[in-house]
Amino acid sequence: MPDLEGALSSLVSLTEGQANIIFLENAEREIEVGVHEFEFGSKQRVVFDIYVAHLAEEESQFLKIEDVVDYEYLLDSLDQVIGAGRFGLVEQIADELLDYVLSPKQTLAATVKITKIEVPNAKGDLGCCLTRLKSQDGAGDGI
Fold it and tell me: Given this model, what pLDDT does residue 28 score?
């Protein structure tokens, strides 16, 4: 997987320094997810990392909350998605989260990384990382 820091730096460069990144990292939740028999009926510890790139207002001096994308919507998006019920795949959760976090008009791109920790016999953490770039016409902005 390409280095996340490098991808974010490239995005800022492509937007001539106008992109800002907001994030939610290490948000641990206990959710029911998985397709294996042992995963049904029990919750697993899962860690969410969400990064969203957005364009800054040209005249913004970052003096007021109205000058930025309110990062608290990342928490709301996470709670909304995982509160909807059980998922078979973490990729499904990541895809739905991308829909939510790309909904503000200022957003350009987002990455969602989901890690299942303490997976039996894994001797490590497992998960997925999905990235979506919003098209110029606004397609891909989800809900």
Answer: 95
